[in-house]
């Protein structure tokens, strides 16, 4: 049989040269890109322009991490920390 990922399994990483990088949680649940489901990556706009990003299980813990690269050759590593009261919310650090 085939296995399809649920729309709950997707998030959207958006990088910009002028704004902080953000992750939209579950953008395909008819909510669109709403501010209530937007999680900003801290300090992602503090150095210079973001020009690349990679998402993957970089520390082999079974959960995806984010690496953001900048024009000035800074690499910023983020891991998601779930909120204790709500699995749909959380932050990146």
TrEMBL record:
Domain of life: Eukaryota
UniProt GO cellular component terms: actin cytoskeleton; lamellipodium
InterPro entries noted in UniProt: Integrin_alpha_N, Kptn
GO molecular function: actin filament binding
Gene Ontology biological process terms from the UniProt entry: actin filament organization; cellular response to amino acid starvation; negative regulation of TORC1 signaling
Cross-referenced PANTHER family: KICSTOR COMPLEX PROTEIN KAPTIN
Official protein name in the record: Integrin_alpha2 domain-containing protein
Organism: Mesocestoides corti
